[in-house]
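Collaborator request log, item 7. Partner lab (contact: R.S.) asked for a structural prediction of Glycosyltransferase family 2 protein to inform their binding assays.
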Amino acid sequence: MINASDAVGRQATVYSLVIPIFNEEAVLPLLVRRIGMLLDALDGRAEAIFVDDGSRDTSVIFLRGMAAEDDRFRLIELSRNFGHQIAITAGMDAAAGEAVIVMDADLQDPPEVVLDLVAKWKEGYEIVYARRIRREGETWFKRASASIFYRLIEKMTSVDIPRDVGDFRLIGRKALETFKRMPERDRFVRGMFGWMGFKQTAVPFERPMRAAGETKYPFWKMVRLAVHGIVSFSDKPLRLALWAGLAISGLAALLGLYAVFSWLFVSGVVHGWTSTVVIISFLSGINLLMTGVIGLYVGGIHAEVKRRPLYVVDRLTGFEEAIAAMNN
Ligand code: UDP
Ligand code: MG
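Returned to partner:
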């Protein structure tokens, strides 16, 4: 794990921006310019940590150049694609600031909003998240599925996971240190911040379109994130079997009564195989479904007991100051 935060050289850093990058070459020139302006506008020493999540385009070359040129830019290159949630974890591990701001690379999280987040932090909030009040240019399907997901997870878990909030947020040092003590592999970062408590508040913003390039969250990746979110913050699906079992037993008892009734009072009834086939296939469906649900949780346990590191760093650029300070 990267632990640059105790480095003497960066002690004075007030703000750290953490930006995950996966094949974002189309948006990088614009992004870097806007981030540079934001760093200037912030009222304290600020750094921008880009985390390359195994990009297969020219993003890395561009960012290496930037990080070598401007000493406020740093780059962490992961050894392969570990996924968005792990990439932001790597960035937060390396952040030296008193306040850490996580934002997307595609400028859907507008840099100006960061100043509003900072203002709330100064009022004493430990975690300030940005809430999307409108989403521009995203497909009807994406908005509908996101909305269903936030409402579903709200019903399924006792942890407060705020609605319509992504990973765009500011967290203070206390929350960051708490986050670093949460070693779980199955990372649903927005839920983890909901779990830890502290004084939290929201800043509303209108989510613009992606500035360039296309989404790195295709449908199956969104489903995976949703399933991970639910499995790691709720055990309700496990208890589904109980209720399904009870309901089906009830139906079976009624069916039994009906069979006895017809045996007693109706003469010569031969029940066709239709009902048998329907009942057997229905029950085996339920059985397989519940085995799958249990499998999800067992898979989670399996990933957890292997105790592998969360991510692997291939190369760092722009951390020289911090590394030199550690070696002294
Ligand atoms: N991202 C990443 N690794 C991945 C997928 C995405 O680091 O495997 C980054 C991506 O570069 C962007 C952020 O996560 O900075 C959000 O992705 P995107 O904007 O494509 O998601 P959307 O806004 O469409 O949900
Ligand atoms: Mg986006």
